[in-house]
Design goal:
The complex is a heterodimer of chains A (about 375) and B (about 400).
Chain A: H1 7-23, H2 26-34, H3 43-51, H4 69-82, H5 89-103, H6 106-117, E1 123-126, E2 141-145, E3 148-159, E4 166-172, E5 183-189, E6 195-201, E7 207-219, H7 233-267, E8 271-272, E9 275-276, H8 281-309, H9 315-344, H10 355-367, H11 372-382
Parallel strand pairs in A: 1-4
Antiparallel strand pairs in A: 2-3, 3-7, 4-5, 6-7, 8-9
Helix pairs in contact in A: 1-4, 4-7, 4-8, 5-6, 5-7, 7-8, 7-9, 7-10, 8-9, 9-10, 9-11
Chain B: H1 3-17, H2 43-55, H3 73-85, H4 95-107, H5 110-121, E1 127-130, E2 146-150, E3 153-164, E4 171-177, E5 188-194, E6 200-205, E7 214-225, E8 229-230, H6 236-252, H7 273-281, H8 290-319, H9 326-349, H10 363-375, H11 385-396, H12 402-409
Parallel strand pairs in B: 1-4
Antiparallel strand pairs in B: 2-3, 3-7, 4-5, 5-8, 6-7
Classes of the chains: A alpha+beta (about 375), B alpha+beta (about 400).
């Protein structure tokens, strides 16, 4: 498979680019922030995205999707990253729908996925319990009771957890807080008694939530993968998170490219000492370095998306390239967002100018589903060193 | 021809024609550079070269009328895949193939192509590159080697430096100044001549690694026929830059060292930095030094992303014509990666990577020492990393040239 887009993918990219630049510029995010919007995303724009079919790109046709693959979803995420579009695309589609696709039984998929594609159902995935991403350290516990489970535990950094109709909660069924055994995913309704959802306003103007679950009752049929027994969890969860990591890396790629383009434009406009500052070698070399690093990120993201669509890829090979990509993209996101501020000088520090939005989003995205250090450690382990 | 048919044909041909010893991992002193005086260490190398050159497959995409393979890019890709499938060694490695040939095909006259291209394909003439001069390194266009018209000839005087393998080459492609008036870029010509011409002499330069791949080359009233000049008088700079793009693409391959799969039977502990690091610490399963572990992971991640970028650039260049200014990015990144690799190997091996010669060290350990030193040239040869960053800034990113801006104000 080719690292260069084919015609269909190019068409999708062009249409996404046009849609985002015309309908969802960065000013939308600014407006959502300034008006303290209680949902944190623009519902009209989301409705249009649903209309365009974006929620179904990577979902099989038999479950209401368009079977266009993860490369397609990645293309769209990259474009929405350019203007920092805040939408449930990551929470509900990239993570929620993927969790259901990988874990769900056929009836669960048939019931839930078409609703996601049509925008009738918003999902959120609740994994982390600590401020540091550690998907194997799950203490939330599901006790078997008659007809289902009672879940107790706390979750943090749950993207769009405050607007989701259903929360997909990772909890363990056996004992032991760090074991890979016994992890299961439960679909919990937002109104379930005992579930407390606290919205957390993040620096990137998107929305997360902290959850606390006290004796929350979940019926057996709402445990994902009821037909698979209770012990299939950790490796499947890793695969779902890897899809998320690669998708988020696609979005980060679009954002870093936009921040870099903004910076490059500034270097070609701003005069000091009687010349354009872009003519200074001290800045040129740093710009050239950023360009090179962004190109490496683009290749990593494309390679990773292809691997997700490769039916013969093993979980380990997906894991390796996901960690490779998330580590690389996180490092470069840090570099580019820092340099973007510095090269803009004073104006880069002002709220009025857009570049600040990029550094804020970059840090949240870097941390989300594991930062560069987390993924280098995982990559080294996967490579047996 | 259908590509699947072509693949089957290639496979069948290779099966019969690639000698067994040519399917073993390449050995440095058996690399076939070709040329009038080339000694084949392994007789199979000669057979392999003759068979491949006979099909034009030493230069698969070059036109058949000049001896090339005449393959489409898709066919050439299949040939290269089939060659790697059987671990075939390159039949011929030369600057004629990687640097000179492509620009001759673009810029030379029909007669010039007919004269030189077939000899490159067959490995009959070994070429060297006369670019840098003692006073002209990064500022290559300031070169001063003079070519003065004298009847139907040019008389060439001056000297070149860092001429790779000048002492082994048959011919040189050389940048000379044919006009001393006007802007420096506008007075340069690209000319070819025989290294056996009277007045040419070479002197090897010993490097910090102890080896001498480069020479100083001197020209003292060297008489060269005027029709050896390529692309017209004073038009040499454009050709020179184009050739540099090809050279940079070639050198960027250094950055792929980590991602090459080595044959399990011939694997060395040095092939993977992490294996070496664990071996010299007596670790198994997990590297005990957490800082080095993180550094190696970072290096390998960059290497993988770089290998994907090389692949993507190759796929993109199919749509366009040959390498572009992004070759500077690949050259720069690939060289810096290779230097990082050797610095990490030094950390991995500790004092065993610091031997110079003699007992107490394995040959492959001494090899690391020498290659580490050699790698320092990667970011100097073919244009320094700083020059590559300048090229990216100006040609790819379109940032303004401060020299032009200041001139505009005078």
């Amino acid at each position: 498979m080719s690292l260069v887009f084919n015609e269909d993918q190019e068409l999708l990219q062009d249409s996404a680019k046009n849609f985002v630049s015309q309908n969802a510029p960065l000013s939308v995010l600014r407006q959502l922030r300034d008006t303290n919007d209680d949902r944190g995303f623009d519902e009209k724009i989301w409705a249009q995205m649903i209309e365009l079919g974006w929620a179904g790109i990577a979902i099989e046709e038999s479950f209401g999707g368009f079977n266009f693959g993860h490369v397609g979803l990645g293309v769209v995420l990259e474009e929405t990253g350019r203007t920092l579009v805040s939408s449930p695309l990551i929470s509900s589609v990239l993570l929620g729908a993927t969790a259901i696709s990988y874990f769900g039984s056929d009836p669960q998929k048939k019931y839930l996925l078409p609703k996601v594609v049509k925008g009738q159902l918003l999902l959120a995935l609740a994994v982390d319990e600590l401020p540091i991403h550690s998907p194997n350290r799950i203490e939330s516990f599901a006790t078997k009771v008659d007809g289902g489970y009672r879940i107790n535990g706390n979750k943090t950094f749950v993207l769009d957890g405050h607007v989701a109709d259903k929360l997909i909660v990772v909890a363990r069924i056996d004992k032991g807080g760090v074991s890979r055994q016994g992890l299961n995913l439960f679909v919990v309704d937002k109104k379930a008694p005992g579930l407390n959802i606290q919205r957390t306003l993040m620096v990137d103007c998107r929305n997360c939530a902290n959850l606390s679950l006290t004796d929350v009752y979940v019926e057996e049929e709402n445990r994902l993968g009821v037909d698979m027994g209770v012990d299939h969890g950790a490796s499947r969860l890793a695969r779902v998170l890897d899809v998320g990591r690669i998708g988020v890396a696609s979005e980060m790629l679009g954002s870093m490219q936009a921040a870099f383009d903004l910076t490059l434009t500034y270097l070609k406009q701003r005069e000091q000492f009687g010349v354009l500052i872009g003519s200074f070698q001290g800045l040129q070399h740093r710009a050239a370095t950023m360009y090179s690093e962004i190109e490496l990120c683009r290749s990593a993201v494309r390679g990773a998306l292809l691997e997700l669509d490769n039916l013969h890829a093993s979980d380990d090979s997906v894991a390796r390239i996901a960690s490779m990509t998330k580590a690389k993209v996180s490092d470069v996101a840090q570099l580019v967002s820092n340099e973007a501020i510095q090269m803009h000088g004073g104006i880069g520090m002002t709220d009025e100018y857009d570049v600040g939005f990029y550094i804020k989003r970059a840090r949240v995205a870097q941390q989300f589903l594991g930062d560069a250090a987390f993924h280098r450690d995982r990559y080294a382990s996967l490579n047996s060193f | 021809m259908q590509l699947s048919v072509f693949r089957a044909d290639v496979r069948a041909w290779l099966d019969i024609n690639c000698p067994e010893t040519m399917r073993l991992p390449a050995v440095q002193d058996e690399v076939v550079w070709g040329g009038r005086n080339f000694q084949f260490k392994n007789p199979d190398s000669k057979i392999w070269l003759e068979r491949m050159a006979g099909k034009g497959w030493t230069c698969p995409t070059w036109p058949e009328e000049f001896g090339g393979g005449g393959l489409s890019k898709e066919e050439a890709m299949i040939l290269s895949q089939e060659l790697s499938r059987i671990n075939a060694r390159p039949a011929l490695t030369s600057f004629g193939i990687s640097m000179l040939g492509p620009v001759l095909l673009e810029s030379a006259s029909y007669e010039q192509k007919l004269e030189h291209i077939p000899k490159i394909v067959r490995g009959e003439i070994r070429w060297c590159q006369g670019y840098s001069e003692p006073g002209s390194g990064s500022d290559l266009a300031s070169l001063a080697t003079r070519a003065e018209a004298d009847g139907d000839d040019y008389l060439i005087n001056g000297s070149k430096v860092w001429t790779s393998y000048a002492d082994k080459a048959d011919w040189i492609f050389c940048l000379v100044r044919t006009d001393v008036e006007g802007p420096k870029h506008g007075g340069i010509s690209f000319i070819l001549f025989d290294m056996e011409t009277s007045g040419v002499s070479t002197k090897p330069i010993q490097l910090i690694s102890g080896s001498s791949p480069f020479c100083e080359t001197f020209f003292d009233d060297v008489r060269v026929p005027a029709n050896n000049l390529i692309g017209g008088v004073n038009n040499g700079w454009a050709i020179a830059k184009r050739l540099l793009q090809h050279e940079r693409t070639m050198i960027s391959g250094f950055g792929l060292a980590d991602s090459l799969n080595s044959d399990a039977d011939h694997a060395s502990i040095m092939d993977k930095v992490e294996d070496a690091a664990m071996h010299y610490r007596g670790d198994s399963g997990r590297l005990s030094d957490p800082v080095l572990r993180d550094e190696i992971a970072k290096f390998k991640i960059d290497s993988e992303a770089f290998a994907l970028t090389s692949r993507r650039s190759l796929e993109e260049s199919k749509k366009e014509q040959g390498p572009t200014a992004t070759s500077s990015m690949l050259k720069n990144y690939g060289c810096e990666l290779n230097k990082r690799r050797y610095e990490l190997l030094l950390q991995a091996l500790g004092s065993q990577a610091l031997g110079w010669e003699g007992s107490g060290f394995k040959i492959e350990e001494l090899g690391v020492t020498r290659e580490w030193l050699r790698s320092k040239a990667n970011s100097i040869e073919g244009g320094t990393s700083e020059v590559q960053l300048n090229v990216i800034a100006k040609r790819v990113l379109g940032l303004p040239d401060i020299l032009n801006m200041r001139k505009g104000r005078d």
